[in-house]
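Hey, sorry to bother you again with one of my protein questions. I've been puzzling over a protein and I'd love to understand its fold better. Take your time with it, there's no hurry, and the full record follows here:
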Amino acid sequence: MKTIIKMNKNKKTAILVGALILIAFGVIANAITEFKIIVMVADVVSGLAVIGIAILMFPFFKVISNKLSLSYLSVEIVEGVIMITGGFFFLNNSLHSLRDLVYNGIHLYLFILSGFIFYYLLYKSKIIPRFLSIWGTVAIFSLLVMTILKLSGLNYPMLDLLLVPIISNEIFLAIWLMVKGFNLSTINSVKTKNNMK
């Protein structure tokens, strides 16, 4: 009975993480509308979603590496707070340039850093198929390359195609989690190995 309840809880967690990944895409609301309240609310909700994902994933990740999981959690909390703050910046026209600087600078690099940690921990935990973790890592690397090239002064529209891998990966991952959930047998085997040490 306890095992069934635990399985149901973990399935709900996977569904919630998948939903929060999709909700976090609200951060692109600024590219769709200039309506201040909508953008502000979308940024705040997206920031909370980012923090929520990290909190929900922490129990699964800490089995693999407590230090890395704490690092991931810390980076995501900072990233989420920046997104929330950026939403309120959007309400003030004089702060728009500051918001752009925060989003295109600090936020972007925090996203890249947390992404590498996230997909590494997913790869090591095996709670999702490893091809998704590898895809995600390659996608984050593509985003990093795009960022470096743009910082170098190359602003060709075709560079935006390097966003496709991470967007498609996150959408696929979200759907996978909501439909398939976690493969928790791998986590249990890691726990057993750790207890034997």
